[in-house]
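re: the backbone from monday

yeah here it is again, tokenized this time
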């Protein structure tokens, strides 16, 4: 058994890119489910910039039910998936073969945020059409209605790829509107921003992708343009996890792109990297099992979690 495989037992990778993509993927959804099961993982979350992934998740759960991997999906509100639209959110929440199959997360856009569009040096018209969270005043329509839907269905709000200051404001407004489950990709935030969003009850997400070699090359994400995603050093990520504390941290792979190992192997490497910065197996388990398990209401074999989202003790 490769070193680190024991850390994968019971884990949940809430960030797997195995859905079809315009440039292919290292594996498909059913393969990702089988590989997760073989590693003893109990859940995977499918991320897709082009479509609500709940349908593929429901199919994988039904087809591979005997593997007892809870495969879940959700909606990233990118334009090809319907954009920032309350109707698209409503459909995603109800999508599936039976109640409970629907989206378990609703994510703000990733590349169609002004934050990323500016980084990618998109045209002024492109940037203008992208989402930005204002520092004060009302959120742009129809975000208030979408936050209410997320709160009512008690699913995860993912902050997408907005900036640190925008995420701080989003968390504040979302909490005020009753959203209980919030996940913020946090690798590029400042320590103060991480402190603020976790103090407000959100979880900070750190992914293998950001510390991997995938940030060395231009990759296509939502169209034909190749862009180099900004990376972060392992030391910096460690500082930010220390700030968030394991009790408010979620570790994920963000694998599926060709240049990275398939998701299970990517997560194994990532957990070994994180362990090397000083976390023992118990702390790792909190960050990659208990926290994402509670946040996304991941089933534990035959037993369902109670849906409590109090952070586990570190
Ligand atoms: Zn991703």
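seq for it, each position gets an aa:
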């Amino acid at each position: 058994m490769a070193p680190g495989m024991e850390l994968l037992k019971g884990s949940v990778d809430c960030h797997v890119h195995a859905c079809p993509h315009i440039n292919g993927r290292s594996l498909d959804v059913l393969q990702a489910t089988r590989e997760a099961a073989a590693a003893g993982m109990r859940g995977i979350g499918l991320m897709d910039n082009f479509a609500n992934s709940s349908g593929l998740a429901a199919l994988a759960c039904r087809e591979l039910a005997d593997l007892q991997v809870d495969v879940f999906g959700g909606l990233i509100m990118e334009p090809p998936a319907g954009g920032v639209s309350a109707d698209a959110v409503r459909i995603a929440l109800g999508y599936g073969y039976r109640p409970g199959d629907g989206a378990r997360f609703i994510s703000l856009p990733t590349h169609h945020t002004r934050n990323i569009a500016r980084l990618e040096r998109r045209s002024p018209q492109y940037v203008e059409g992208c989402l930005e969270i204002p520092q004060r005043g009302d959120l742009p329509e129809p975000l208030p209605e979408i936050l209410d839907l997320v709160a009512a269905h008690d699913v995860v709000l993912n902050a997408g790829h907005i900036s640190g200051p925008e995420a701080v404001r989003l968390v504040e407004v979302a909490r005020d509107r009753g959203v209980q489950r919030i996940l913020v990709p946090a690798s590029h935030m400042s320590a103060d921003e991480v402190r603020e969003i976790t103090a407000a009850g959100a979880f900070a997400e750190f992914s293998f992708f950001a510390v991997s070699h995938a940030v060395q090359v231009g990759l296509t994400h939502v169209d034909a343009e190749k862009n180099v995603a900004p990376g972060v050093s392992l030391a910096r990520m460690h500082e930010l996890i220390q700030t968030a504390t394991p009790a408010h941290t979620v570790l994920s792979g963000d694998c599926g792109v060709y240049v990275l190992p398939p998701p299970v192997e990517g997560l194994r490497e990532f957990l070994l990297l994180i362990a090397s910065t000083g976390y023992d197996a118990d702390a790792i388990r909190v960050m990659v099992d208990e926290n994402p398990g509670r946040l996304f209401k991941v089933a534990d074999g035959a037993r369902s979690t109670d849906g409590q989202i109090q952070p586990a003790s570190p």
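Residues 6 and 39 are 8 Å apart (CA to CA). The longest strand covers residues 12-16.
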